[in-house]
Fold:
Amino acid sequence: KQEVTQIPAALSVPEGENLVLNCSFTDSAIYNLQWFRQDPGKGLTSLLLIQSSQREQTSGRLNASLDKSSGRSTLYIAASQPGDSATYLCAVVQGGSEKLVFGKGTKLTVNP
Amino acid sequence: GAVVSQHPSRVICKSGTSVKIECRSLDFQATTMFWYRQFPKQSLMLMATSNEGSKATYEQGVEKDKFLINHASLTLSTLTVTSAHPEDSSFYICSASIRTSGGLRNEQFFGPGTRLTVL
Structure:
């Protein structure tokens, strides 16, 4: 059974700092991996999707990497801003399935 | 593009009543829709997967007679919580999947969620 773990559970940084969020998964036979952002009481916003054949994806100040063989992904946020404060969720789709398996998320607080 | 809406955003009901939540893909046809629930400070747990015109597939431990899912069209799925109890209080989120040609992308787009409180 696929399990997704995110470390740390919570992170607080000063504005302007670069930071890395970590995600690991136990079964490397994934179809793709997605990073989402969730604001309190809200739904999910898709940030980046990495196909299993890809190594990384970039969007603005965000860069996500994928090392499928080691079961790891990282989300790099450059020059963090208070508006980046949210919970960041990592999720994988198992090969042969459409189901997303989520980690518990990392709650990020960027202090002005 | 790829916008998913949910209605209502918030509902409070009495124990024993039924509540219907709608999930719509506004600008695309969704091959598959998913229903999740999320408890406070927990991650999303998949409840069921639904494809248009066929019966939903429920995850282990989810009562199909309690959580009725109807997927009448490629843009609409509904979740009905029947005979709701306080323990059903949760945040319910739907998603819709786009499968591009060749099935390469298979990305899910999420609705804003529905907060259900059962008194």
User: Anything to note?
Assistant: The first strand of chain B starts at residue 4 and ends at 7. Chain B touches chain A through 25 residues (CB under 8 Å). Chain B is about 0% helix and 55% strand.
